[in-house]
Amino acid sequence: MESAISFCNNSTLAVSLSRNPSSSSCLKNAKIASPSSLLPNQFLGCGGLSSSSPRAKWLSSFPVQPRLRLGSTSIQCSVSGTTAASSTEKNSQLTRRSDIRNIAIVAHVDHGKTTLVDAMLKQAKVFRDNQFVQERIMDSNDLERERGITILSKNTSISYKDTKINIIDTPGHSDFGGEVERVLNMVDGVLLVIDSVEGPMPQTRFVLKKALEFGHAVVVVVNKIDRPSARPDYVINSTFELFIELDASDEQCDFQVIYASGINGKAGLSPDKLADDLGPLFESIIRCIPGPRIDRDGALQMLVTNIEYDEHKGKIAIGRLHAGVLERGMDVKVCTSEDACRYARISELFVYEKFSRVPAESVEAGDICAVCGIADVQIGETIADKAFGKPLPAIRVEQPTVKMSFSINTSPFVGREGKYVTSRNLRDRLYRELERNLAMRVEDGETSDTFIVSGRGTLHITILIENMRREGYEFMVGPPKVISKKVDDQLLEPFEIATVEVREELMGPVVELLGKRRGQMFNMENAGPEGTTILKYKIPTRGLLGLRNAVLTASRGTAILNTIFDSYGPWAGDINGREQGSLVAFEDGTTTTYALFSSQERGKMFVGPGVDVYKGQIVGIHQRPGDLALNVCKKKAATNVRSNKEQTVVLDAPLEYSLDDCIEYIQEDELVEVTPLSIRMCKNPKLAKKGR
Description:
Blueprint: H1 10-19, H2 25-28, E1 31-32, H3 40-44, H4 54-59, E2 68-69, H5 78-84, E3 95-96, E4 100-107, H6 113-123, H7 142-147, E5 154-160, E6 163-169, H8 177-183, E7 189-195, H9 202-213, E8 217-223, H10 232-245, H11 250-253, E9 256-261, E10 266-268, H12 279-288, E11 293-294, E12 301-310, E13 314-323, E14 325-327, E15 331-335, E16 341-345, E17 348-353, E18 356-359, E19 362-364, E20 368-372, E21 382-385, E22 402-408, H13 423-433, E23 441-444, E24 450-455, H14 458-470, E25 475-477, E26 481-482, E27 485-487, E28 490-503, H15 507-516, E29 520-526, E30 532-540, H16 541-544, H17 547-554, E31 560-570, E32 582-585, E33 589-590, H18 593-599, E34 603-605, E35 612-613, E36 618-622, E37 628-630, H19 659-665, E38 670-674, E39 679-683
Helix pairs in contact: 15-17
């Protein structure tokens, strides 16, 4: 396997030339052959740069293209060169551990991270041959399995050729970018997984930018290479351009490319020649990602980057040991800053082996471990030596952009289904969420029973709402609002990059819809032979609220919308919201077939017959602007003077809105009532009602 893998540094030269052709670090060590020995493919074939690349075309404009004979013919990554130089680092006490690799797997949503981790675990013999293993085993949360996305970062480890590889699976959705930012403190390199058809997407840019800021080594994995419409050359060239745009160093631009099919458990150095297993991927991890840089003999330092809870052990702090040795039963100092420290004792110590936590007596610097015994530990704190320990820099994540109001349930049905209904219950739960959700903010509202929750996006807060209702909480939430700010007396609001994949024949309605939401198109390109067009817009976050369902409607359910925060910009102006009003229940009672039959002529209904409703509850969508109060509980008069036969009544099927749909639907004067068994919408009794 080792002799089959070759790495080279020619793409480093391409990057250096593109920035400054006269001062390339690669040229200094390169031997230039005569023009007659010109072989362009050898010059352009490394780092995944194909001959159709924009960089390749630029290089081809030179009258003489040199053929490079790089001095070393051994198997080597550009990153391993920096690893070898670690012995001459500024701080001579820091060394590299060669028996451990700490990596994070990052990607855009649905590019196959978790499936790839499944294949890595199976080939590392983490499970028995006859053991039943469900798909996406790292997605252990019920909500993750239902939605098919990764929400929380989780870590495991495997062994390959006497090297322990700690793997952290991260979320791919932009709303959970805080999870990615947090765990990048624990690793030394990343596997950047990219779909072989879609190429780099908005979240790919975000996670790559964060990894490059940390100075991490990157191995690019072109996943799903077995798809019929795979286009690896386009993907690699686009990825290389993305590295250039993000000001990656020459060493980082010389990334190793692995082509893989995660679902089949195969990988290779060429898209046409995949090995029978993931051996090339494992080899690339060992060779291209350096071991952790540690201070083995220094004072103990461990940065807490994650917290789990166990009914028997209490809080479990998870993090990477940066210096020293941590032992079970050891007295330590827990610090948030130089002046804020407290003392504690480590009661239990665990390391990750295969798919479980294993007790350990001691852990050396460079490894990822779990610690018990510190009841009040928080993410971002440092567990340090009792006498000489110093805190590590705190974890920084980007600020939230969307906020929603949470309040106690004030509907007539309060307490029917929920276990926790008071403002004290709601307050305790929300502030407890801050212990592990660094990207979220909670503050008290205008009244004692109202709280303002801020997050990275609507989905970020919706996941919290869904978890709370499953835990037995009853409460109400208001519509999402953007977090604006003033700079030099100018009002600024958040803008996002929206990427829409839509069929060409359905592009018109989508473009019109995004234009109404103040979106500005800056790129449009065809995506492969399937007739799909990719539209890229810069659009205010306000314009994205309630947009997802509208885009699906305009594209007949075929469009895919992805967004990621870009920057704050000047206020874009007024944006029209929902054009249709709501149908509102006129009185308390139980819906009847008789009343619904006449009501459905006014719009689309949310409720069927035999459902309890209350005055002010939203029971449907009005077909015209403005709200309309309806009596959906009216019963047919039961008299004995009618001799005609009863007519057969046919009702339309009611609309079934999920929690996400309800939050997208409501406007300023409306609320979503959330209970463990039901999700209802109602008019906000504190605000003046909109009359027809």
